[in-house]
C-alpha cells in the first residue's frame, strides 16, 4: 500500500471539534450507572434514520439470526512507572509483544498525574523498571514503507528483562494505560470486558465493555449468535493519529464458518469493535469468504478498500481525525457519518473507552 491513499484519506477524514465536557472521564459505574446503562445511538445507513436508547435495550435492534463477533482479548496492566538515568520521570507503555521476545513500547514523559509524548529517548538506552526489571531500547519502530510516520519518534522496539513471568510481574507493578482525559486511576477490572479470555491487549477493546452476562444470556435466548476471535490491540496514537501498526490476531475455524453461513443466509454480521473488523477483513478474501487464521495484521481499512466480512458495527465514538473513522466511512459512507456524529454531539454523547456506543446497521 502506498502512502498517498492513506494520506489523502486521512486529510479528507471526518473532522469536528470535540468539547471537553463530552470526554468520558470516569467509568459509568462511577457515574451511578450499570455497565449496560451507557447510551446507545442506533443508525440505519440505508435511510439515515437515527434512534437513541440505552445499551441494555440493544436486543430490540437485533434480530434472531444476527451474528455478533466479539474480541476476547483481555486488557493488561500495560503501564509502568520508570525513571530515566538523568532523573526524568517516565511512564512506559507496553504495546505489542512480538516474536523473539521483542516488544513495541511507547515511552512517555510523566508530569504529575499526566503523561505526554517524549521524543528524547535514544537507541541503546536502558531504563530501570520497578521490581528490578529493565527496559532496553533497541531501535525506533518503523511503520513500514509507504506508511505515515509520526512527527516525533513515539514507538520503539525493545527487550524487557523480568525476574518473574510477564502477567505476574504486571499484576504486581503495572497499571492500566490511561490518558489525560481520565484524571483518576481505576483498577484493571474497569478495563475488562466480561468475556475476556486471554490477556494481551495494551488497551481495552472497549466496544464490548457494556455487555453484561445477563444481557448476553438474553441475546442468546433471542436467537442471536455470539462468536469469538482474538486481536491484541496496541497503544493508541492520540497525539499523532497515525494509522494502526501490526497486531496479533486469531480467527477460529468455527467463527469463520459462522460468518460464511450468516452471509449465505443473508443475515447481519455485527462486529463488536473496530478490532474485530480489522481481524476479519484480514482473513476475508475478495469474494467475501472468511477463512480461519492467525498471525500479524497491518491492514488499514479505507473507503477505497471497502469491507468484505461485516455489514454492521458496534463501536465507540472516535476522536476527530482518528484513523478508525476511515473504517466507519468504508462501512457507512461519509454523509451518514456526518449525520450521526452531528447527532452524537447535539445529544451530548460521551466519547472514549468509558463513553457511549454507536450501533451502525444496514
From TrEMBL:
Gene3D superfamilies: QueA-like. GO terms for biological process: tRNA queuosine(34) biosynthetic process. GO terms for molecular function: S-adenosylmethionine:tRNA ribosyltransferase-isomerase activity. Pfam families: Queuosine_synth. Coiled coil: none annotated. Keywords: Cytoplasm, Queuosine biosynthesis, S-adenosyl-L-methionine, Transferase. InterPro entries: QueA, QueA_dom1, QueA_dom2, QueA_sf. PANTHER family: S-ADENOSYLMETHIONINE:TRNA RIBOSYLTRANSFERASE-ISOMERASE. This is Queuosine biosynthesis protein.
Amino acid at each position: 500500500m502506498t502512502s498517498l491513499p492513506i494520506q489523502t484519506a486521512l486529510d479528507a477524514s471526518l473532522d469536528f471539534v470535540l468539547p471537553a465536557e463530552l470526554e468520558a472521564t470516569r467509568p459509568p459505574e462511577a457515574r451511578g450507572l450499570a455497565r449496560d446503562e451507557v447510551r446507545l445511538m442506533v443508525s440505519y445507513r440505508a435511510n439515515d434514520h437515527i434512534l437513541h436508547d440505552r445499551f441494555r435495550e440493544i436486543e430490540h435492534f437485533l434480530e434472531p439470526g444476527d451474528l455478533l463477533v466479539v474480541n476476547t482479548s483481555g486488557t493488561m496492566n500495560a503501564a509502568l512507572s520508570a525513571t530515566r538515568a538523568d532523573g526524568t520521570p517516565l511512564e512506559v507503555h507496553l504495546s505489542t509483544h512480538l516474536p523473539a521476545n521483542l516488544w513495541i513500547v511507547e515511552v512517555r514523559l510523566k508530569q504529575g498525574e499526566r503523561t505526554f509524548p517524549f521524543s528524547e529517548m535514544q537507541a541503546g538506552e536502558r531504563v530501570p523498571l520497578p521490581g528490578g526489571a529493565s527496559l532496553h531500547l533497541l531501535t525506533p519502530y518503523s511503520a513500514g514503507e509507504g506508511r505515515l510516520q509520526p512527527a516525533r519518534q513515539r514507538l520503539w522496539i525493545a527487550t524487557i528483562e523480568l525476574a518473574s513471568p510477564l502477567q505476574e510481574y504486571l499484576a504486581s507493578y503495572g497499571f492500566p494505560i490511561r490518558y489525560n482525559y481520565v484524571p483518576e486511576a481505576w483498577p484493571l477490572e474497569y478495563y475488562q470486558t466480561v468475556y475476556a479470555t486471554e490477556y494481551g491487549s495494551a488497551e481495552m477493546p472497549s466496544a464490548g465493555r457494556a455487555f453484561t452476562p445477563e444481557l448476553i444470556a438474553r441475546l442468546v435466548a433471542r436467537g442471536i449468535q455470539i462468536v469469538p476471535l482474538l486481536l491484541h490491540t496496541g497503544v493508541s496514537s492520540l497525539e499523532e493519529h497515525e494509522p494502526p501498526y501490526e497486531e496479533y490476531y486469531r480467527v477460529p475455524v468455527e467463527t469463520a464458518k459462522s460468518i460464511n453461513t450468516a452471509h449465505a443466509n443473508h443475515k447481519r454480521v455485527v462486529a463488536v469493535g473496530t478490532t474485530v473488523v480489522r481481524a476479519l477483513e484480514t482473513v476475508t478474501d475478495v469474494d467475501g469468504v472468511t477463512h480461519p487464521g492467525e498471525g500479524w495484521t497491518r491492514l488499514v481499512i479505507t473507503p477505497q478498500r471497502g469491507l468484505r466480512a461485516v455489514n454492521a458495527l458496534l463501536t465507540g465514538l472516535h476522536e476527530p481525525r482518528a484513523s478508525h473513522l476511515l473504517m466507519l466511512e468504508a462501512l457507512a459512507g461519509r454523509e451518514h457519518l456526518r449525520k450521526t456524529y452531528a447527532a452524537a454531539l447535539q445529544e451530548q454523547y460521551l466519547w472514549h473507552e468509558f463513553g457511549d456506543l454507536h450501533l451502525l446497521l444496514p
